[in-house]
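Reviewer 2 asked us to include a model.

Predict the structure of this chain.
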Amino acid sequence: MENPAFQRHIKSFVLRQGHLSPGQQRAIDEGMPRWGIEYRAEVLDLDAAFGREAPKILEIGFGMGGATAEIAAHHPERDYLGVEVHSPGVGNLFKLIGEKSLSNLRVIRHDAVEVIDNMLADGSLDGIHLFFPDPWHKKRHNKRRLIQRAFVAKLVKKLKTGGYLHCATDWEDYALQMMEVLSAEPLLVNPHDGYAPRPEYRPLTKFEQRGIRLGHGVWDVIFERR
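Predicted model (structure tokens):
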């Protein structure tokens, strides 16, 4: 049974602002007016935000932004909207956007659940990325995991027919939960036989490469909107 408290108070994060270096603060100050989108409780015109019509991909919780910038750089034909609350990560991604001269990446520094509820129109997204969310590996903390039925139901509404939801984790127990939750969502279908092979667009992080060398697993769970 879904946790009623989770249904009422879904949060995409535990607030950890971290220490902002002078460079990261400068990147935020300079980057927000150029590539940032301020949170507002009103529907965002995605085409207007990017200045063009193109497939729109949402990334929830991009961490320090390295993989996000790499994906955007390799796929200029798509637009990417990153949502993150961790200020050092936001600053670092702005720095990368400038260094790579990326025109197809925008950033919202806010809770992803409120962004999804209030800023994204139903059927507006071609894809959603949720890579390596906090596994909350202690059993008593599993209820804090982001991938639960109530949250997935919110995400599915924002996808176009044929759009995809891509989750990745290096925690096997969470991978099992992801597969169970996504399989139970009636508007999603798994085009793969179980877990998916890593798509070419998701780069291997240094952490992941190290884990693979040590024999650790990484699981990609990719479903499509019916």
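The chain is about 40% helix and 20% strand. The chain has one domain: 22-225. We have added this to the supplementary material.
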